[in-house]
Amino acid sequence: MNNEQTVSRIFAHSRIDIIPVLAAEAHLAFDIYLIVGFATRPIWFSVLLGCVYAVSISWNINSLSHNFIHTPYFKPRSMNYAFSLLESIAIGFSQTYYHWIHMRHHTGNSDRQNEQGDTIDWLSIYRHAKNGKPESVWGYTFLSFFRDNLGDVHKAIAKHRPFDAQWGKFELWLFIAFVAAAFAYDWKAALFFVPFYYFGNCLSSLNGYYEHLNANPDVPMAWGVSSYNKFYNWLWFGNGYHAEHHYRPRLHWTKYRQFHEQIRAEQKAAGVHTISTCHALGFLAKENRGMAAA
Q1: Closest alpha carbon to 210 in 15, 6, 58
Q2: Nearest to 35 by CA among 60, 10, 53, 20
Q3: Does the pLDDT value for residue 170 go beyond 80?
Q4: Chain-centre distance of CA 13, in angstroms?
Q5: Averaged pLDDT score across all residues of the chain
Q6: String of DSSP letters for the chain
Q7: Residues 53-62: pLDDT tens digits?
Q8: Most buried residue, 49, 156, 221, 252, by CB count within 10 Å?
């Protein structure tokens, strides 16, 4: 089931992946519009667009970019590298570097600290925690942006995939060039959206926090927290099925609903935690009340 191949000469898994591909292109076009149209917009409208921009960063990271890591959209490697480049500019950091960090996340599955106080998963909600409890949502949300060491990421990739390490560096420099061009075109506009860029990354961390709060790092079927809200899964390309995703990370995003139905009884027996809200609003989920320290 995990490795079904489409008859398409372009798409590796399903022709429906044209939708996230077009969505990524639309996201990049939106980023450009934010700068190009800034001078002609009233400030209140730019503030509104800035909020949309922040949400779009988290949306892309946790849907388009995330699914691309596990099931690359294209058969030709050149097209996957090109899409990775596009995504790097759209989300604001190297997709290749993100790929490595995220796969390490799946190696540790938000593991608890070992005897040395370290975790395999650099994104674990326990990595910077104390007393064996998850880190506070405030610290994880607002500090995670500053914690990645890109030098260490680059060296780790270079050990086994030197070309990918260089490609990741190229993606990073191309994004920096994109930002420099934005400042050259309209420095006020570029500076205006910097806080929204940071806030978008915070929203992504917030999303990740509730994807694992009250999950069980010791039970594979319960490694993640799921949300079966239909609108959320439609808009976020299946990201709500997070317990299913951690259990079968190479399954295509269109198949998680069917997979959930197949293993529903086993999930219940394993104690899989589910919430009724999208992950980013997990602090509002009634299922999380009184369980923050679990």
Answers
A1: 58
A2: 53
A3: yes
A4: 20
A5: 95
A6: -TT---S-SSBSS-GGGHHHHHHHHHHHHHHHHHHHTGGGS-HHHHHHHHHHHHHHHHHHIIIIIHHHHHS-SBSSHHHHHHHHHHHHHHHTS-HHHHHHHHHHHHHHTSPPP-TTS--S-TT-TTTT-STTSPPPHHHHHHHGGGT--HHHHHHHHHHH-HHHHHHHHHHHHHHHHHHHHHHHH-HHHHHHHHHHHHHHHHHHHHHHHHTTTT--TT-GGGSS-EE--HHHHHHTTTTT-HHHHHHSTTS-GGGHHHHHHHHHHHHHHHT--EESS-GGGGGG-GGGTT-TT-
A7: 999 999 999 9
A8: 252
- Mean pLDDT over 78-98 rounds to 98
Percent of the chain surpassing pLDDT 90: 93
Six-digit token string for 180: 């420099």
Rounded Cα distance, 74 and 55, in Å: 26
CA distance 146 to 38: 28
- Per-residue pLDDT at 1 exceeds 80: no
